[in-house]
Design a protein that fits this description.
The complex is a heterodimer of chains A (152) and B (108).
Chain A: H1 6-15, H2 33-44, E1 50-51, E2 54-57, E3 61-64, E4 68-74, E5 84-91, E6 98-103, E7 112-117, E8 123-131, E9 136-147
Parallel strand pairs in A: 1-9, 3-9
Antiparallel strand pairs in A: 2-4, 4-7, 5-6, 5-8, 8-9
Chain B: E1 6-9, E2 13-14, E3 18-26, E4 48-55, E5 58-65, E6 74-81, E7 85-93, E8 98-107
The chains are: A mainly beta (152), B mainly beta (108).
């Protein structure tokens, strides 16, 4: 299997004239590690999230960057004094780094959710959880994308 | 225009205190704002930006989403039910369109 570098994936994206998904502008303003950090810090108010205490599950390889399944789960009893308020999901290499903010409630059974997201290219995705005691947790993963953000 | 009829998967009955999974799906292009038309012009962004689920008027799960969510947004979450009642689901998009759905559940 040819190794997919960021450059080759961008090249693939450039070659695709018709993209049903994100339709990546060539070498345009993609998210960067700095933009990702800024998005996380804005969410946490400057508090550094601790690694662990939650999981972010995504496939290692996504055939279609337009539809990539994602599941987030936080280790929390969801009881008084220890519950999850919300989760931020952000993708380092997408044109817009923030994918979404997901807010739980006291009636949420289990602090977890699933959805499908778009990935413009192979990249790191992070999930940050805001806890009721003001602390933050984080999980991250890397997904390789064969066809970036463009559906059939 | 895509018809944005929502689909909900949710059991009709549950025991008190049971954690129930809800799966939602709605047709929507989620036009990201990054695509260009055949003349090279940017197609304006038009996505669902908010989803909310309430149970008997209490908020359960609310999401602020955007172009990073795939077309035909799928959202799966869960709720601990203690009483019978009605779930109300609401999706809102950039054009101001509001899509809703309701489902009842019997809790014994």
């Amino acid at each position: 299997m040819t190794e997919l570098t960021r450059r080759s994936v961008l090249g693939l994206g450039a070659g695709m004239v018709v993209c049903a998904g994100i339709g990546l502008p060539l070498r345009a303003a993609l998210a960067t590690p700095e933009k990702l950090q800024a998005a996380i810090m804005e969410y946490t108010g400057g508090v550094a999230p601790a690694n662990g205490g939650m999981t972010l599950s995504m496939p290692e390889i996504a055939e279609n960057g337009g539809v990539v399944p994602m599941e987030v789960s936080v280790d929390s009893a969801m009881a008084d004094g220890d519950y999850v308020e919300s989760v931020l999901v952000a993708a380092e290499g997408n044109p817009v780094p923030v994918v979404g903010t997901f807010n739980f409630s006291r009636m949420s059974g289990d602090p977890s959710f699933s959805t499908r997201i778009r990935l413009a290219q192979s990249q790191k995705i992070v999930a940050v959880a805001k806890m009721s005691d003001g602390s933050f947790r984080m999980a991250e993963t890397v997904t390789k994308v064969t066809i970036g953000g463009c559906g059939g | 225009m895509a018809q944005s009829k929502p689909r909900i998967k949710l059991q009709k009955t549950a025991s008190k205190g049971e954690i129930v999974t809800i799966k939602t799906l709605i047709n929507h292009k989620m036009e990201s704002g990054s695509r260009k038309d055949k003349d090279g012009k940017l197609i304006p962004r038009m996505v669902i930006h908010t989803f909310s689920c309430h149970f008997n008027d209490n908020p359960i799960f609310e999401c602020d989403i955007g172009p990073g969510i795939s077309a035909n947004p799928y959202l799966e979450f869960n709720v601990k039910v203690e009483e019978s009642g009605t779930f109300r689901f609401v999706w809102e998009d950039d054009e101001g369109s509001v899509y809703t759905a309701e489902r009842k559940i019997e809790v014994a």
